[in-house]
Amino acid sequence: MENLDLKYQPDINDDYLCPDIMIVCDRKKLKGGSYYGVPKFIVETLSHTTAKRDKTEKKDIYEKTGVEEYWIVSPQGSVEIYYLENGRYVLQQHYMFQSDKEEEDYNAEQEIVLKTFPHIRMTLGDIFEGVE
User: Is pTM, for the whole model, over 0.85?
Assistant: First the structure.
């Protein structure tokens, strides 16, 4: 679904965010173009205009809401993976994409697995395919 709003405090106010990617598991909490539950997984893709908000305000909201896994992906080749532990995000992995096989740090074939959905697997090359 595109442009699905996340109503993260539906009992308190009408505030919402629109994550770039999220996995939701409770269809009963989908109403119109909004989700009123807690996603299991969210990805935000950084841009010059959203980077600060994605790494601070949105990250804090997802943490408080209880999103189990949060990824921040930068088109410049970085992936930060946070897991919720005891109510706080902990940086579990940080990858810097290197696609040149001649480089010592080549990692395009590095496989990443979603914690909550271990059958969902991708490589760093998959994530950055087509990104110049």
Answer: yes
pLDDT tens-digit profile, the chain (132 residues): 568 999 998 888 889 999 999 999 999 999 989 999 999 999 999 999 999 999 999 999 999 999 999 999 999 999 999 999 999 999 999 999 999 999 999 999 999 999 989 999 999 999 999 887
Q: What is the 3-state secondary structure (H, E, C) of the chain?
A: CCCCEECCCCCCCCCCECCCEEECCCHHHEECCEECCCCCEEEEECCCCCHHHHHCHHHHHHHHHCCCEEEEEECCCEEEEEEEECCEEEEEEEEECCCCCCCCCCCCCCEEECCCCCCCEEEHHHHCCCCC
- Dihedral sign (CA 7, 35, 65, 128): negative
Pairing of strands 30-31, 69-74: unpaired
